[in-house]
Structure formats: structure tokens, C-alpha cells
Design brief:
Elements lengths: L1 H42 L6 H8 L3 H5 L5 H23 L9 H18 L1 H7 L6 H25 L5 H23 L3 H23 L7 H6 L1
Helix pairs in contact: 1-2, 1-4, 1-6, 4-5, 4-7, 5-6, 5-8, 5-9, 7-8, 8-9
């Protein structure tokens, strides 16, 4: 009876050891990716190095190389995770709009979600808009960009039902371009000044879309008074 129990305990321990090693490995990877995000945000992808990432993570370069062969592999893994999170976020941020929703509310809701994501993950902007990102990441970014434009077009079509496809595509490109330009300014500031730039970005998008939308979406009392 005791021998069987000892054998069961040994089998259980043998099963648990790989799980513990896997859990430790996942924690180490998360630690390295967090450090890489800090380094990429601070120095940019091109100037970053595996030594700097290892130093930021508080580990030896040898430990880093147990999980990633080079800087590009780290950037790709970090980028993949951030892109996945971004896709989940904009699925909610760019949901169809109720025709009764005020334009100001619709714009503010989408902008706030995107700004919150980018402020929480500044490495996303550093990687996706840097001058020398890895090829695979550039491809992922292009795919993300195309999907994002498609979702913006879908959002616009919900309150511009009579617009021609070419007009919707052009308007979507303008909205995304304006947002990216504003985002760079937002990320360059902090605190109250950052909040002020976020508000300016919303104003720019609202004033661009307002003549196109007209009275299709609801208008807040403040906007009616302003116009």
C-alpha cells in the first residue's frame, strides 16, 4: 500500500516539474518583454540592444538568449502580443453607432479607447511607427492598418449611408491620419498637457466630420450653441 502511494507521489512530482518549469519560463518571458517595451520606448527599436534589454530586466545576456535569439525575435513577440490586444480593443472601440448618438460622443468614445491603449503601451507606437522595424512586424502592421481602415469605414457608413465607397475610404484615411498625427503629440506630453492634446485631437476630428455628418447623428446642446 505504501509502495503504491510512493509511486503515485513520484508520478505526480514528475508531472508537476515540467509545469513549474513552464510557468517559470513564461514569467521570465513576460519579464523580458516588459523590459524590452521600456527600452524600445526609450531608445527606439534601432538603437536598442539585447544587452540593454537584459540589463533593464535584471538578468544576464545569457539568460535572455535562452528565450530569444536576438533583438528582432523579442520585438516580433512583443509586437504580436500588442497587435492581438489592439485588435480586441478596436473591435469594441469601432462598434456600430446608434444614429441617435451625438457626434461628439461617438468620436470621444473611440478616441479615448485608442489613446488609453497607446498610453498604456507606448512601445506599440515606438515599434509600429519606427523607421527600421523588422520585416514580419511591418507586414503585421500593414494588415492591422488595412483592417483598422475597414472598421473605420464600417463605422462611418453607419451614419453616412448614402456615401460612395470611395468617399468612405477617403474619409476613413483622413480620420486615421489625423488620429496618428495627434497621437504623436499626445504621447510626447504628460499630465494636464496630455489631456489638453487629447481634447484638441477630438476637436479636430469632430470639426472634420461635422459637415459630412450634418444632422444624421445627434448633436449635443453645446455643439448646437457653438454653431
Amino acid at each position: 500500500m505504501s509502495a503504491n502511494r510512493d509511486k503515485d507521489d513520484q508520478v505526480h512530482q514528475e508531472k508537476e516539474q515540467p509545469r513549474r518549469r513552464q510557468a517559470r519560463g513564461e514569467r521570465r518571458i513576460a519579464q523580458l518583454l516588459e523590459a524590452a517595451a521600456t527600452v524600445f520606448t526609450t531608445t527606439g527599436y534601432t538603437a536598442a540592444s539585447t544587452n540593454a534589454i537584459a540589463r533593464e530586466a535584471g538578468v544576464s545576456p545569457g539568460t535572455l538568449y535562452q528565450f530569444f535569439p536576438n533583438k528582432e525575435a523579442i520585438a516580433i513577440e512583443l509586437g504580436d502580443r500588442l497587435i492581438h490586444e489592439m485588435r480586441e480593443m478596436y473591435g469594441e472601440a469601432l462598434a456600430p453607432v446608434d444614429p441617435a448618438t451625438p457626434l461628439e460622443e461617438a468620436v470621444a468614445s473611440a478616441v479615448d479607447r485608442f489613446i488609453a491603449f497607446n498610453c498604456a503601451h507606448p512601445a506599440f507606437f515606438a515599434l509600429m511607427h519606427g523607421p527600421d522595424i523588422p520585416g514580419r512586424m511591418a507586414e503585421e502592421h500593414d494588415a492591422l492598418h488595412a483592417t483598422l481602415l475597414s472598421r473605420i469605414e464600417g463605422l462611418l457608413s453607419s451614419f453616412l449611408p448614402d456615401a460612395a465607397p470611395a468617399d468612405l475610404a477617403r474619409t476613413a484615411h483622413m480620420c486615421l491620419g489625423l488620429y496618428k498625427a495627434g497621437l504623436e503629440l499626445v504621447l510626447a506630453h504628460e499630465g494636464a498637457e496630455r489631456d489638453a492634446y487629447v481634447q484638441e485631437l477630438k476637436h479636430v476630428l469632430i470639426r472634420y466630420l461635422d459637415p459630412l455628418v450634418g444632422d444624421r447623428l445627434g448633436r449635443t446642446e453645446a455643439a448646437r450653441t457653438a454653431t
